[in-house]
Amino acid sequence: xxxxxxxxxxxxxxxGKNVGSAGVTVVIVHDDLLAFAFRESPCTTRLHISAFYxxxxxxxxxxxxGGAMIIDNSHRFYVCPVEPQNRSKMNIPFHIGIDKGDxxxxxxxxxxxxxxxxxxxxxHRSVGNIWASLYNAVMIEYVQxxxxxxxxxxxxxxx
Length: 159
Hints:
By secondary structure, this protein is an alpha+beta fold. The chain folds into two domains: 35 residues, no CATH class; 93 residues, Aspartate Aminotransferase, domain 1, CATH 3.90.1150. The chain has four helices and six strands. The strands form two sheets. A four-stranded antiparallel sheet has the order 3-4-6-5. It has a two-stranded antiparallel ribbon with strand order 1-2.
């Protein structure tokens, strides 16, 4: 769950767990444990409150950013082998071409992506020959660059 926890609504009332991306940790604390969590010095408590505020801004940004549906809106040029209800928004496997993919198109996609310095997109044939991982603090600019590349590639190579 940690790879896609911040990508969709989650009922946090069921958990007492910490979460966060690289460099940031958020602790989800039940109300009855809140007093126990802040038994530290006032200085440390101010630091916690500042961290919560910044993480709140980050979570609001994630909520408002939404996501592109490039694969599902590509008229089956890109095909995800995972049923929509089971997909991660952070790990995105896909093929290019109807169902099992077109080896030549996928090789061309990966070669063109490499020329644009998009690395580690090669996946495994069983789950999508192409695999984009968008977590661990991947910058939004990189996600937008990949989305633009995918749109342009599909226009140039429609089956």
